């Protein structure tokens, strides 16, 4: 906590005590003497209308009754528990309450924006916001991509990702070997997320494009078009087939590949 916050908190406490504090002193057999506190004059300028000092005009003396009663004593309790209104109280008490309420209200209004600002800013970190925006603009991105593009250390990034995930601002999606980060506002279904993550691999993306454009193509033809090894093509096809993104049909010695119905409605970009 900063020193300024401690000072403000201390001043508020002093104001509160100065508003309500009175001094009660035991005055021997006379009973309890109740009078205004010096703090009252420090924090209530209106009290200057009523001079500070002792005497009957500035204090009340409450004396206890003498018990037990002696034979023949008469107790007059006709005025006991009498209720009076606020406006029947002495002027200095009225001024104390009114000025105290005004002073406390002004103090609260002065401090309220600061307190609200701290509450609203809690959990909102510029770097976290930057990471969340990056994920929204790059759905399915990996930790390595974020760390490199935003120049963050992996440990720091994982801390921010954990907070964003606990705040339900991002989703850590994983299916099999596929994993990626999506913003919570993403409208993609699970199938679309799987397709999106497969497309992040350039060779796999090209295979999907070619199979969609030329249904019934063989693995050998794909290898020739992509100029990559046939075994590499078969490995990508196996992964795509496992997630129901392509179908295959055997024709003699060759397998022909077709796009699955689930990806026909999605544009391959």
TrEMBL record:
Q: Name one GO molecular function term.
A: DNA-binding transcription factor activity
Taxonomic superkingdom: Archaea
Identify the keywords attached in UniProt to this record, alphabetized. Answer: Membrane, Transmembrane, Transmembrane helix
InterPro entries recorded for this chain? ArsR-like_HTH (IPR011991), HTH_ArsR_DNA-bd_dom (IPR001845), WH-like_DNA-bd_sf (IPR036388), WH_DNA-bd_sf (IPR036390)
Stored SUPFAM superfamilies: Winged helix' DNA-binding domain (SSF46785)
Establish whether keyword Transferase is in the entry: no
Question: HTH arsR-type domain spans which residues?
Answer: 184-269
Q: Which residues cross the membrane?
A: 7-28
The record, for Gene3D superfamilies, names:
Winged helix-like DNA-binding domain superfamily/Winged helix DNA-binding domain
- Put simply, this protein is called Winged helix-turn-helix transcriptional regulator
Q: To which species is this protein native?
A: Methanolobus vulcani
